[in-house]
């Protein structure tokens, strides 16, 4: 579904992404891991249209989408969430969901004055869909709560719910588990798995919680120093010496020598 070819993103002399190439298969939940500073979020930002890459290209179902702005990618079904949730804090959970679909009839003054019946009919349809999303995510108890009053985990669920209000093809999740307690993290994980299995959502997620990655993701792609280091199952990458080297600064090959001098 997504093909990244020799992608680079440089900020002056800093090579945040440096010739990265990878593929995200349709229907997969792909994990993207790596130490801090590996270039993971920058890669997401380039794919999602927030940055124009220095070099390389991004393809969505064979179409070159390199550098397209986020609103154009939104229309093509490519969405992303952020490590820090971007909710409308003074709107309710339901209203946050209802703002997502684009091109609503009520957005124009003409329709509001002269086509009020059509505006109300569409609003009822959108509200019905929002309520279905709320039920799916099991957050009915906070449907009328202001989004700013939600816990960190509930805000992450709300962000996931916003992707369900449109026909998403692929969703990029940036540290969906950051700052979330284990109970809510399990709820988020269950929702992702259900969206993947029941609605054929494709996901790519940045995450540091390897238990969460192991439960959800196959394959797992590892980045280090702006490059793709390796790819495989969660168990394969956890046992990979290059991955251990990237995270800990020392590979397994150094272990016997270190033990011998202890």
UniProtKB/TrEMBL annotation:
One cellular-component annotation, GO: plasma membrane
MF GO annotations: ATP binding; ATP hydrolysis activity
InterPro entries xrefs: AAA+_ATPase, ABC_AA/LPS_Transport, ABC_transporter-like_ATP-bd, ABC_transporter-like_CS, BCA_ABC_TP_C, P-loop_NTPase
Domain ABC transporter: 2-250
SMART domains reported in the protein's UniProt record: AAA (SM00382)
Superkingdom of origin: Bacteria
CDD domains per the UniProt record, alphabetical: ABC_Mj1267_LivG_branched
Keywords: ATP-binding, Nucleotide-binding, Transport
Protein name listed in UniProt: ATP-binding cassette domain-containing protein
């Amino acid at each position: 579904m997504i093909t990244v070819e020799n992608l680079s993103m440089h900020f002056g002399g800093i090579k945040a992404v440096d010739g990265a190439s990878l593929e995200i298969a349709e229907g997969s939940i792909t994990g993207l891991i790596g130490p801090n500073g590996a270039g993971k979020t920058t890669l997401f930002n380039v794919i999602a249209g927030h940055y124009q890459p220095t070099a390389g290209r991004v393809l969505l179902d064979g179409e070159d989408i390199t550098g397209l702005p986020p609103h154009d990618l939104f229309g093509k079904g490519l969405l992303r969430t952020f490590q820090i949730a971007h909710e409308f804090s003074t709107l309710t959970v339901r209203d946050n969901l209802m703002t997502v679909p684009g091109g609503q009839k009520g957005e124009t003054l003409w329709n509001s004055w002269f086509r009020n019946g059509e505006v109300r009919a569409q609003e009822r349809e959108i509200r019905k869909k929002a309520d279905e999303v709320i039920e799916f995510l099991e957050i009915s108890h906070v449907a009328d709560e202001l989004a700013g009053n939600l816990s960190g985990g509930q805000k992450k669920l709300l962000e996931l719910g916003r992707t369900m209000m449109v026909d998403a093809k692929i969703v990029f999740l940036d540290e969906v588990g950051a700052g979330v307690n284990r109970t809510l993290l399990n709820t988020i994980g269950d929702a992702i798995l259900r969206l993947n299995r029941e609605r054929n959502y494709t996901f790519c997620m940045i995450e540091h919680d390897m238990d969460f990655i192991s439960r959800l993701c196959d394959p797992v792609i590892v980045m280090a120093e702006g490059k793709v280091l390796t790819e495989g199952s969660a168990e394969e990458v956890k046992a990979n010496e290059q991955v251990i080297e990237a995270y800990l600064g020392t590979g397994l090959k150094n272990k016997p020598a270190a033990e011998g001098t202890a």
